[in-house]
Amino acid sequence: MTDETLTVEIWRGKDTGRFETYQVPHRQSQTILDVVTWIQRHREPALAYRFACRVGMCGSCAMTVNGRPRWTCRTHVSKVAASGGVRIEPLRNLPRIKDLVTDMTPFFEKWQTARGRFEPSATRSEPMAAIPSDDPERRIVDAGIECINCGVCHAACDVVAWNPDYVGPAALNRAWTLANDQRDGDRAGVLKAVSAAGGCHACHTHGSCVEHCPVGLNPTAGIAGLKRMTLSALLKGGLS
Amino acid sequence: MIEARLYLLQRGSAMLLAPLVLIHLGLILYAIGDGLSAAEILGRTRGSFAWAAFYGLFVLAAAVHAPIGLRNLAREWLAWRGRSVDAAALVFGLVLLALGLRAVWAVIGFGIGAGDGA
Fold it and tell me: Is the residue at B118 inside a domain?
């Protein structure tokens, strides 16, 4: 990398392919997503990648940058290219479609497997549940609710790589917020879902999800909470 | 549900094993350091209900703990899944239990002549 240009390697292809090298003008406050966009607009019109909001809200632009999963729209080149060039690959642990685009279907299917969807306990004609913001359970939910579904934790997790049944940190983090949500109509169902094979008990507490989560969530703590909650339910006969 | 049970059994047995292993290691150091002969050791353990209970519990906890861990390893590292790995882990646990209890019987004996060949 010189002050003016940046050497960027990008994965082209699907499961088989190659890294192509590009020289990209280096700008101040340039993000990895800026770099990929520049290459597509000026050098490689057929380059496939995914993005939407560009401001760290939508969770669609995650890629592997110099070996680490990152949200590319909020990753500055100056932060990751200090030792030279930049190598960009698709996210790990997900089927590849083309170039930098992965198929997120298994990721979201695992959310469903972990019962990571809200089950209402009231209809819309009933008054809204009043839950104080300082309620202990609500504070737990608030700590985990800001997930942007980017898949970075899923790509960072070694257990996801080893065990195809494992639903992964994002799905379990969502299940944890629902298991603590007083408005959810089937919290026991969440505990049953995460107690199946590939559920919370498969987690090894490596903490890679915490280390890589771009919005600073702690899925490992949530999974540990689910382990405690499911064991308590098991001992009380609530999992049968 | 089965995973939650196995998790509970593995963690529960680990909590039991932690002090038992430390005592066992301390015991080895004590016996070796003091130069106790096999006959002296057997003289202290033969017919002892306390040692039978200690090592019986040790064997039971190990026979529960080890196969669950090996099952996880086989599933994650060897991609060995399904009922065959469950059966293999169960058989391993039973073999561990049988060998362990046989060893306990050889050392404790209760004066019935067991462990004569040991």
Answer: no
Q: Closest chain B residue to A197 measured between Cα atoms?
A: B3
ipTM score assigned to the predicted complex: 0.80
> Which residues of chain B make contact with A159, given a CB cutoff of 8 A?
76
Tokens matching residue A62? 């995650």
Binding-site residues on chain B for chain A (CB distance < 8 A): 1-8, 72, 75-77, 81
Count up the domains in chain B and report the number: 1
Task: Tell me the residue range of the domain where B46 lies.
Answer: 2-111
Helix axes B2-33, A219-235, angle to 10 degrees: 90
How do residues A1-35 score in pLDDT, each as one tens digit? 556 899 999 999 999 999 999 999 999 999 999 99
* A93-120 tens-digit pLDDT: 999 999 999 999 999 999 999 999 999 9
Separation in Å, CA of B85 to nearest CA in chain A: 14
Residue-range domains of chain A with CATH: 5-102 (3.10.20.30), 105-235 (1.10.1060.10)
Q: What is the DSSP string of chain B?
A: -HHHHHHHHHHHHHHHHHHHHHHHHHHHHHHHHTT--HHHHHHHHTT-HHHHHHHHHHHHHHHHHHHHHHHHHHHHHS---SHHHHHHHHHHHHHHHHHHHHHHHHHHGGGSSTTTT-
Structure tokens at A165: 């049944």
Which of B4, B76, B77 is facing A195, going by the closest CB pair?
B4
Per-residue pLDDT tens over the stretch A42-54:
999 999 999 999 9
Predicted confidence (pLDDT) at residue A233 exceeds the cutoff of 50: yes
Residue B82 lies in a domain: yes
Which CATH number is B29's domain given?
1.20.1300
What's the confidence (pLDDT) of residue B3?
Answer: 92
Please tell me if residue A159 touches chain B, with a CB cutoff of 8 Å.
yes
**What pLDDT is stored for residue B112 in this prediction?**
54
Asked if residue B66 belongs to a domain, the reply is: yes
